[in-house]
Write a structure and sequence with these properties.
Largest sheet: 6 strands, antiparallel
Number of helices: 4
Strand order of the largest sheet: 1-2-6-5-4-3
Number of strands: 6
Distance between the termini: 128 Å
Mean pLDDT: 85
Shape: rod-shaped
Low-confidence stretches: none
Order of helices and strands: HHHEEHEEEE
Structural class: alpha+beta
Length: about 180
């Protein structure tokens, strides 16, 4: 009887162990299945995320190309019409002169045109600054013609006519007949 009970207990332990192994295997399969589903879900999510990122990159690229093409067109128009837009002045040199007047607190700034003629930039209505500078060089103002925008200066027996014009709404550009010494 004891032998039969031991065999029966052993048999029941083996059955439980087999059931446990089957359950453990089922549990592992379920976990593997869950991992597989999560991977597929992430893979689908990552594909849609990739598509969204690619769409953003495409939009940025299209915007960049549009800006680049627009810039090229504008620069081409400016280059073709350079003389009509800026005349015979140098826009960068004029911008530097305006910078000196605005930020470096100068009363008068020197610039040049394309022929290296000396030009001066003064704030609108401040021609007296230029006249004072010319007085220091030995010139005397004999006539100021506001209608024709000219100044007539005299040094010894020589008269020099100097014209001026509006550069912007805030500045006056004085054309000097003297060449810049290189």
């Amino acid at each position: 009887q004891l032998k039969g009970a031991a065999e029966q207990t052993l048999k029941s332990v083996k059955e439980r162990h087999e059931r446990f192994l089957v359950l453990e295997q089922d549990r592992e399969e379920k976990q593997a299945l869950k991992r597989l589903l999560v991977r597929r879900k992430n893979a689908k999510g990552s594909i849609s995320e990739r598509n969204e990122i690619m769409d953003k990159i495409k939009k940025i690229l299209v915007l960049f190309l549009a800006i680049l093409i627009s810039t090229i067109i504008v620069l081409s128009v400016i280059f073709i019409n350079w003389e009509h837009i800026f005349g015979d002045t140098r826009p960068i040199a004029n911008a530097k002169a305006m910078y000196q007047l605005e930020f470096k607190d100068k009363d008068i700034a020197e610039t040049t045109d394309v022929d290296n003629n000396i030009m001066y930039v003064v704030p609108k209505g401040h021609l007296d600054t230029y006249i004072e500078m010319m007085k220091k060089k030995g010139y005397a103002l004999t006539e100021k013609d506001d209608k024709h925008h000219t100044l007539l200066l005299k040094k010894g027996n020589t008269f020099t006519e100097i014209s001026y014009k509006s550069l912007t709404s805030r500045y006056t550009l004085i054309n000097s007949p003297f060449l810049k010494e290189v």
